[in-house]
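queue> pop job 88
queue> type: inverse folding (structure -> sequence)
queue> payload:
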């Protein structure tokens, strides 16, 4: 029996967070959530996370700063950015895919399947 993979959803909009949690749970992933960068970093440090979805606009930090913080902490997890503010995204090797909001669920599932 294989262990279930873990996806961390970093999203401050509870409606979008709930949609992603339900979607990932329905297809067999354990899903963790964080509505801020500080909580997300804590989740990453205390849990086995296989993939991260990231909104770029968080209440305590922007997504680019969060990505830099991951690098400073030597955290190397694949990240799928899901955001309405993609024009501000700076290139980062952790970012494996970028989806604009509103996003297509099938497209998201295909991307997730490539990395976990």
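queue> result:
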């Amino acid at each position: 029996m294989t262990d279930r993979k873990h996806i961390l959803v970093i999203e401050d909009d509870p409606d979008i967070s709930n949609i992603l949690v339900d979607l990932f749970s329905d297809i067999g992933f354990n899903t963790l959530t964080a509505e801020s960068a500080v909580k997300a970093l804590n989740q990453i440090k205390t849990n086995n996370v296989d993939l991260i979805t990231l909104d770029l606009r968080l209440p305590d930090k922007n997504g680019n700063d969060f990505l830099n913080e991951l690098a400073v902490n030597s955290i190397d997890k694949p990240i799928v950015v899901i955001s309405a503010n993609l024009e501000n995204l700076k290139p980062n090797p952790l970012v494996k895919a970028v989806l604009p909001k509103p996003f297509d669920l099938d497209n998201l599932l295909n991307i997730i399947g490539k990395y976990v």
